[in-house]
Amino acid sequence: MKSAYLLINFLTILFPVLLSFDKRVQFFKSWRYIFPGLFITGLVFLVWDYLFTVFDVWSFNPDYVTGLYILDLPIEEILFFITVPFACIFIYECLNYYIKKDLLHDLARPISIVLIIACMAFLVQFYDRVYTLITFGFLLVALVYAEFIQQINLGRFYLAYFVSLLPFYIVNGILTSIPIVMYNDAENMAFRVGTIPFEDHFYSLSMLLMNIMLFEYFKKRDTAAR
Asked: 3-state secondary structure string, 24-55?
């Protein structure tokens, strides 16, 4: 089915777009803060994605993409960096609206410290695996920046990330089980959760973290300018 990956993108963003006009959350009013971050983050991750494709870290099954490529990347993969972060920021904003209490406030710093230590440990142990090296190297920098420099509300962020793992397992499970995206295990830990490479969890974490940091930055900048 040539349109499989395109359909996954469409379904990923469909309900967040439709529900953006809910009278309570009114997520559509925040769209203007999302798109600058999507562009910046998408550019970073697309360069990363392109290099991974060139160096055979992963590849795309031609049976499930439409055949339209830009810089060796199927158009569906490029759309992925729009649809998935958009849906995750929607989750983040809905949780902020409906759950007033910062449930993970006291755990945010310990979670960050554990993740930072884990990143350093994986970087030392798997320095020769490209996907592992880049994933945990980037996440380490992003976490240090978020925790000690920009200082976003990481309790709110982690809650959104944990909730986003449910659609993550559905979408990535489909992509990796068919498979639509094929991984070269010589460039990762060769450990999978079901069919999903372990690194994908942290790839998603870093992509969402960068998008949320930029989303909050543009929102605060706009508020301060008024």
From this structure: CCCHHHHHHHHHHHHHHHHHHHHHHHHHHHHC
Domain count, the chain: 1
Instruction: Find all residues with CB under 8 Å of 12, minimum gap 6, and list them.
Output: 83, 84, 87, 167, 171
The crossing angle, in degrees rounded to 10, of helices 154-177 and 105-125 is 50
Query: Per-residue pLDDT averaged across 124-140, rounded?
Result: 96
Average pLDDT over residues 188-212: 96
| Position 109, amino acid | R
Distances (CA, A) of 208 to 10, 34, 80, 90: 19, 12, 13, 11
pTM (predicted TM-score): 0.93
Whole-angstrom distance, CA of residue 32 vs CA of residue 198: 33
Full residue range of the structural domain in which residue 106 is found: 4-225
Task: Provide the pLDDT confidence category of residue 226 given band limits of 50, 70 and 90.
Answer: low
Dist CA 130 CA 64 (whole Å): 25
Burial 90-124 (b: 16+ CB within 10 A, else e): bbbbbbeeeeeeeebeeebeebbeebbeebeebbe
Residues 6+ apart with CB under 8 A from 171: 8, 12, 84
Distance, CA of 189 to CA of 194 (rounded, Å)? 14
Cβ atoms 197, 172 nearer than 8 A: no
CA dist., res. 24 & res. 32, Å (int): 18
pLDDT digits (tens, 9 = 90+) for 69-107: 998 899 999 999 999 999 999 999 999 999 999 999 999
